[in-house]
Design a protein that fits this description.
The chain is built from 5 helices and 4 strands. It is α+β, with helices and mostly antiparallel strands and 125 residues long.
């Protein structure tokens, strides 16, 4: 693998956060808050370290009744993972959406054969 190919793999939390697309509702000066708040998710995704990872954040109807924060993650070979929140404060909404995604990622981990005795290859056949 070349150095150029290696640099595209988000194997650090910083690289994961750099790949985050913000599609609306978040001001440029809030990027630091977003990155600090989503640090736990970034660390978890960096450990998974897929060759391609897509992460998107959007806030619809910001500051209005019915505001919705959506955090989406696309991992290779998996369905899209989505965390949402209707909380008004951005930090609170990010925390709630992040927690939903972390729970989904934990669910994926449990489906892995290493964590499921019924899916593991055994000497018993």
């Amino acid at each position: 693998m070349t150095d150029q190919q290696n640099s595209s793999i988000p194997d650090t939390p910083e690289a994961v956060l750099a790949a985050l697309r913000v599609s609306g509702g978040v001001k440029d000066d809030e990027r630091g808050l977003v990155e600090a708040t989503l640090n736990q998710l970034a660390k978890r995704l960096a450990r998974i370290a897929p060759a391609s990872l897509d992460l998107e954040l959007s806030v619809k109807d910001r500051g209005q009744k019915g505001q919705k924060t959506t955090l989406e993650v696309w991992l290779p070979g998996q369905n899209k993972l989505v965390g949402t929140s209707e909380l008004e404060q951005l930090k609170d909404a990010l925390n709630e959406a992040e927690a939903a995604l972390l729970a989904q990622i934990s669910g994926l981990d449990k489906q892995h054969p290493a964590h499921n005795k019924h899916q593991r290859d055994t000497i018993r056949g």
